[in-house]
Amino acid sequence: xxxxxxxxxxxxxxxxxxxxxxxxxxxxxxxxxxxxxxxxxxxxxxxxxxxxxxxxxxxxxxxxxxxxxxxxxxxxxxxxxxxxxxxxxxxxxxxxxxxxxxxxxxxxxxxxxxxxxxxxxxxxxxxxxxxxxxxxxxxxxxxxxxxxxxxxxxxxxxxxxxxxxxxxxxxxxxxxxxxxxxxxxxxxxxxxxxxxxxxxxxxxxxxxxxxxxxxxxxxxxxxxxxxxxxxxxxxxxxxxxxxxxxxxxxxxxxxxxxxxxxxxxxxxxxx
Length: 271
Fold this sequence. Notes:
Blueprint: H1 2-19, E1 39-44, H2 50-58, E2 75-79, E3 82-86, H3 94-106, E4 109-115, H4 121-133, E5 140-145, H5 154-168, E6 179-180, H6 183-191, H7 195-205, H8 207-245, H9 252-270
Parallel strand pairs: 1-3, 1-4, 4-5, 5-6
Antiparallel strand pairs: 2-3
Helix pairs in contact: 1-8, 2-6, 6-7
């Protein structure tokens, strides 16, 4: 029943695009591909450690990590039959933003990664647009990485969780499956020959909790997340078409104000 209704919606959009002579190549071909592997995109701040997390997950020694921009394009890796996708840091270079947001639109689930510093005002506003405007809260894990620098203790996690609510409200950390990790510590533990030090690194990393949260999230959300992927893509295509066909007075500043007001209206309607 769901697939039938969604396919009818997809066909209506195809028909409307043809009627206004708007390209429909970006629209999904179908609403649910049962044989397609589940896909999880890892996105978030520049230098937040997304590649390190994926190196810990997959054990891939060819994944570049370190200071600076190590990921220029989206890379897909296999993790137990699931596609995990590494993306460039967002809100640093315009081309990187486009690559990352395209990956987010086409993936079934999202792991959003920030550092122990959490959100500044700019990144916080962009994250809320993803959370509220794009309605991604139900398909997202929020990971706070690099906690080893401040001590990945229960008390520090509690303090950070309270700070997160300033950005995530009305959602609380539990809604977003927040987990605090230090991925670099786990990667380092693999090369540590001293068993006691290796055990300390693993404990500091909190890697096992991260994998447990990720596995539980997949079990709980896999089917509904895969069902909505095409709908998010259809929504993005319609928004692009609306922008292109939006009447303009020829003044970029006025157009920008109008777009801002439309976004504010969507937030009010959603709430």
